[in-house]
Amino acid sequence: MDSHDIIILGGGLIGQTMALALDVHGLKSVVIDPVDPAGTLTTEFDGRVTAISSSSWKMFDAIGIGPRMREEACPIRRIEVRDGADGRPLDFETDDMADPLGLMLENRVLRRELWAMIQKAPHVTRKFGVTAETLDRGDHRVTACLSDGTTVTAPLLLVCEGRYSSTRDAVGINVAAWDYASMSIVTALDHAIPHQNIAHQIFYPGGPVALLPMNPGTRSALVWSLPDDHAKAAMKLGDRAFLAEVSRVTADILGDLSFAAPRALYPLHFRHTAKMTEKRLALVGDAGHGIHPIAGQGFNLGLRDVAVMAEVLVDGARLGLDLGDAQLLARYQRWRAGDVMAVTFACDSLVRLFGLPGKAARAVRRFGLDAVQRAKPVKDLFMSEARGESGNLPMMLQGLRV
Amino acid sequence: MSKASTTTTIDAAEAAHFGKLAADWWNPKGSSAMLHKLNPVRLEFIRDAIDGHWSADGSSFRPLTGKTALDVGCGAGLLCEPLARLGAQMTGVDAAPESIAIAATHAAEGGLAIDYRCADVAGMAEQFDLVTSMEVIEHVTDPADFLAALRDRLADGGLMVLSTPNRTPKSRLAMITLGEGLGAIPKGTHDWDKFLTPDEMQDLLRDAGLVAGEMRGIAFSATAGLHLSDDLSLNYIFTATRA
Predict the structure, then answer these.
(1) Interface test with A, best of B46, B62, B85, B112 (most A CBs within 10 A)
(2) Are A239 and A122 in contact (CB under 8 A)?
(3) Which residues of A touch B26 (CB under 8 A)?
(4) How high is the pLDDT of residue A236?
């Protein structure tokens, strides 16, 4: 029987980041995932890209992979928000000297660097391609019997299995879920006019269209949210017809378009758990919350879970506490719950506000956007939220170790 | 009245009261919930004291490696277990045999080697690098004798950490009227008249040949919960070393 400080179920982007955040502080974890990502690491761009907030990036710096990815990431210097293609922009401009609002990073770059770091992390035991067959959360420790015939124990289990977490469901943590009856089409486009590091978000009653700047300067990611039937119809369009539709809804901001990646379709859900902890167990990342990707906040919210959990556990270990101690789990729950609720409902409200059709609703939205544009404190708050800086910031999101 | 070193400081009625609570001691939602909430706050103070006294690295997980430690009035081991995880070779003593039985079982099941004894500190002979006693001095029959017994257990260059409630109208309201009245603290746990003020404590320490270090308050607020504070009016925690 192999004992560790933490058992991490799920070795995706969040699970691996969690293991590394603990590793740099000397806490021992075992990461268990049925999938061995070694076979799925792609060298070609697969169209998947994530907006990483500046504070999330600082955590990547603190665990050592940030500098290795910086050249390949594209900074977002400005976000322009419009109501419909002809609306006036509400831009959140940022100073060139300050941190960018976020960095656009291809998922394959993040996967590659996390995987390389995990291989040489001294305090991480890798159990990829391995399933946890039984999980026992006892009074003193969690014991997991694995499909490779080994047994591992630790005082605490972190569930990083993503939004469809079966472990979360098995322990009876309820998820409030609803479907937006919407889907997002995601792809990457090459365009004639350079993006100048500007992200565009254009709201329509059927859902928002986002263009997010990538490297090189004439490539952007497209995230286009539409009602189910519209989205499925748009997926069936030929390349030329699809690109013509994109040009129309983006008012030709970026000039002539061509595909840099295939189109992919993702359903949009809202998921929220009031509770992120149970006896000797905590949910980290999308297992505890899944939100509309309207503002690109889902993954960043998960990284904030990681930073807070790392700080709670490192502080706890330095006090000699049992890492599954109810007081530590309560601290994690308190620290995260407010933030998750605020971001989840802000994103949900935006969807609803911009989802209302009709002239009156349009006037309200335009008035709202103009008002925000004029009110500097509100705009600053929006900007710091986009950077992931509001709330009580854990050490690792400041680029520091605990 | 003679004050031989074997004088017992244990109040039998007090020991019986805590013995009855023993079974529920490790339940974070049970009758000892307040102690579980208090534990990280005490440990934060103790960790800082350890780092300061022995120039330990604040980021290490085992700063007490190679040190011996004694917790007097250890109950079911809420403080012994963290100190053992921090590396101490740990001994816990308590007057209630029920508590010691629970403590020994809990540590064994958790894989921690802790020497638990149902004993009176006044009857012990060994010395320890770290001697702790949390919320005990207000329960003993004679605080001066108790401090002398603790002092005798302290090795050369050793560190003592004690905590106790202050005797103020606020502590009576918080700990007895509200705490015990509303059930957050088990009824009959405290006798307010036996609480010591920081000034009285300083005098007792001096008489016992000890020097107090910095005293911090353990205060409560609705937003921050229990936390270390400069407000000593409710409860205070402090270090002491040999004069």
Answers:
(1) B85
(2) no
(3) 139
(4) 95
Q: Decide if B83 and A319 are in contact by the 8 Å CB cutoff.
A: no
- pLDDT single digits (tens) B171-224: 888 877 777 877 778 888 888 888 999 999 999 999 999 999 989 999 988 777
pLDDT tens per residue, range A240-251: 999 999 999 998
Q: Please report the pLDDT score of residue A401 as a whole number.
A: 86
d(CA B224, CA A340): 20
For residue A241, what are the contacts with CB-CB under 8 A and spacing of at least 6? Answer: none
At B93, is the secondary structure helix, strand, or coil?
A: strand
Q: What is the DSSP letter of A34?
A: S
Among A156, A352, A179, smallest CA distance to A270 is for A179
Which ranges in chain B belong to alpha helices (H)? Answer: 12-21, 33-54, 80-85, 97-109, 143-153, 169-171, 198-207
| Inter-chain CB proximity A318 and B83 less than 8 Å | no
Q: Please answer yes or no on whether B28 and A326 come within 8 Å at the CB atom.
A: yes
Write out pLDDT tens, residues B57-80.
Answer: 999 999 999 999 999 999 999 999
- Amino acid at residue number A87: G
Mean pLDDT for the stretch of residues A105-113: 90
Contact yes or no for A73/A67 (Cβ under 8 A): no
